[in-house]
Each structure stands twice: as C-alpha cells, then as structure tokens.
Automatic annotation (TrEMBL):
<dbReference type="InterPro" id="IPR006680">
    <property type="entry name" value="Amidohydro-rel"/>
</dbReference>
<protein>
    <submittedName>
        <fullName>Amidohydrolase family protein</fullName>
    </submittedName>
</protein>
<dbReference type="Pfam" id="PF04909">
    <property type="entry name" value="Amidohydro_2"/>
</dbReference>
<dbReference type="InterPro" id="IPR032466">
    <property type="entry name" value="Metal_Hydrolase"/>
</dbReference>
<feature type="domain" description="Amidohydrolase-related">
    <location>
        <begin position="129"/>
        <end position="415"/>
    </location>
</feature>
<dbReference type="InterPro" id="IPR032465">
    <property type="entry name" value="ACMSD"/>
</dbReference>
<keyword id="KW-0456">Lyase</keyword>
Amino acid sequence: MTATLPETGTDVLADIKIIDADAHLTEPADLWTSRVPASRRDRVPVQKTIDGITAWYLHDELWASTGGNTISTGREKILGSHVVQPFERVDVSAWSVRERLELLDSMGIYGQILYPNGIGFASNHIFAIEDEAERAEILRIYNDFLAESQEESGGRLFPQALLPIWDMDLTVKEMTRLVDKGMRGFTLSDKPELLGLPELIDPYFTPMWDVFNEARLVANFHIGAGARREEMEAMRGNIGQKAPNTSGPGVPSVAPPAWKYYGKQRRLAVGATQMYMSNVRIIVNLCMSDLFDRHPNLKIVSAESGIGWIPFILEAMEFQFDEMVTDPAELALARRRPTEYFRDHLYVMWWFEQVAPAKLIHDIGVENVLVETDVPHPTCLYPGPREHFTRVMGGLDARSQRRVLQDNAAELYRIELP
C-alpha cells in the first residue's frame, strides 16, 4: 500500500493522540547533588564545564557526556553536531517536565516514552562504577528522578527505568519498588555478556523475566544499549575517550564503524546509520528462543531501530530456520516459529523513514509498529513530526494510522487517553 499526500490543509490525523515511543530525557545538572546530603556530594556524579565542554564527573574523573542534545535555548535545532555545548546552551525542555510538555504541544504530540541520555541507554555506565554501594545509590536516585518526572507529567511522560542487573536480588527489589510508583517498563542491555554477566536467556535472568511477565512490564532494547561505558563515550567522540579493546599495538580487535579517513561529522553519520540495525541480534535471538514460551505475557520493544529492514529479517529467520534447524532436539527447543513469536511479542518503530511506513507496515504487522521522534537527539523530528507523519501515512487506512500512531503504544504501556 502506497501513501499519497493529503490535500493541503487537511489534517487526516486530527483525532489521533500521537504517542512518541522513543524520546530522551536529559539528566539535569543537579540530578544527584540535589538528592543527597552535602556530606555525600563527592560520592555522586556532578556536572563540570571545562574548556567549554560540559560532562559528568565522578570522584573528579570523567564519567559520562551530557548525551545527544541538539535543541538549543530558544528551541532552535542545531545541525552538524550531536551535542550542544556547554550545557547552559541546551534548551530546558531536555529535562524540565513542564517545558517538555509545552514542547510536545507545539509539536502535536500527546505523550512520550522516555529513555536516558548522557548516561547511556541501559545501566552499563552505572555498572562501570567500582563501588557496589555507590552503584546502587546512584541508580536508585536516577530512577527516583524518573518516577518523579512521570508523576509530574500527569500521565503524558513515561520514562523507562534502569536495572541493577549485576545483582538479581536487587534487580527484583528495584522492579517491585518502581512498579509501586507506577513505572511501566525498563531499558536493558542487549549484550550483558560483554559486561561479564550471563546471556539474557540464562537462568540467572529468570527472576527478572518473571517480574516482567507477571507485572506486564515492557522490556526495552534501545540501540546502543549494549555498549560498555568506554565504547559509548569513544563513539560519541566528544570527551577524549579512546576506543577500547586492542589486540595489538594500534590494531583494534573489532573494526570501528567508520573509516578514520573521515572527519568527525562524517564518522558520526556513518556510525549512526549502521547503529539502527544493531538490534538485529537481539530480535533474531529472542525469536529463535523459548523465552516467550516460558513468559507468555512478555512484550519487547526495539527502540530507535527503524523498520525498513524488518521484512527481510522476518523472511531470513523463516528461511534459515527451515534450512538449518532439523535435529529433533533443536526443533523441540521452542514451540512456535520465529515470526509467530515476533507477531505476538515484539514491537519496532520508525521516525524519519518514508518508504517503509508507506509500503511495508502491513508486511511487518500493523500491531507491531510504533512511531517516535527521538527528541532531542540529532536525528529527531523537530519541529514538525506531525506534518511528517501526515505526509507519510496520509494514504493509509484510518485503522492503520491509529494503530501505529496511538493505540499500539497506549495498550503496550497502559496509557490512559482523554
């Protein structure tokens, strides 16, 4: 089905309350220091600006950048960089609930599912902190900030919290604590084995999956969430980190996404283009496993990964399954075929794309697709996402429009619409 441009002046989405399934809540400058006694402020992350570059420091050592922020004061989107510096130039809508809601109103967006920003897209930055007591406190304070933001938003902003997956007892306690505060989901590393932990299918993670299943929480895998702290900061390239993991003098063990021949801007463009499809690994492994047999209520979101490549992956999984999985023991591992698990348990999302949303929505599955803006990251649809969605989806049937732009996310994250 091909989208056609709506008539000039016609708002075909007028009755739809668009839910943005992936935006980012930037960590405010006083996130941790305002929530601990003065005597403990040297034990939590603090923002510092040195030579015009703002970053997060812990124990006077560089810990994290301030993340992707491209909307500057005055709500102007800055091109050519993934971060406005120094932090005082970042528009307050990046972290202020009131200002974010005003921004959403100006964009024609009703609600947002929010992910972290500077501290990475899972708890890997926090896991890199050596002291376990500090780790736990810093994570708890961060999650409290998210819960406060959700409460303040009046049912329009829904942050996805972090989990201390290095301690499964603590993980279950934190999930239970945040469920009581109304949280709807969590964002996870898709490669915990890179942190020295078991794979997600390992029995180690069963208590966590049990809570997801029983409380009907959403497990979110944002692109880049599996990167270790050092890798993430090296990829961002703005705070002096060197790429980790060398197998010899000056020889990387894994080739970087972009050739060093390029300048910084082109390297960022090359890396970002490839990162969209980094979630292929987690999607294929989930659909080939028996995780959903054991946890039938589990819902998984692949965030900021686009949808154009999904039909190919669905076909490839089915083809390779028939070609390669013939042993009775292998066949007995899971009860259903890969695409059946995808249809019932996985969600993917799009934002800048035009071809896939217009032509491939039904091949992917209308019930499996969400929409996002990625505010305030470099690729964000700002200031006119509603116009973009209207242009791309204007030729689709009304049910498909409403499913993708509103109902799928509202049902998944249990969002009450007025």
